[in-house]
Amino acid sequence: xxxxxxxxxxxxxxxxxxxxxxxxxxxxxxxxxxxxxxxxxxxxxxxxxxxxxxxxxxxxxxxxxxxxxxxxxxxxxxxxxxxxxxxxxx
Length: 90
Known about the structure:
- By secondary structure, the protein is α+β, with helices and mostly antiparallel strands.
- The chain is 34% helix and 19% strand.
- The protein has 3 helices and 4 strands, in the order E-H-E-H-E-E-H.
- It has a 4-stranded mixed beta sheet with strand order 2-1-3-4, with helices on both faces.
């Protein structure tokens, strides 16, 4: 039985430098994710507001939420979910 990968969603805005850095980090590590721009899509804004936080980036990994670009916490959560291996970190 294989573990199903969690859905990964990045809530961002086009002008957010930290959002761009996090997006690039995810792409470099070949992490599949969907990006939702909260300024362009009402649905994205509604989903973002449900988390009760302010500011982007906001990364949802399954039922876990990371506010800001905290690469250590993101790495830990992705490893726990089986999405990121030890060898793919660098």
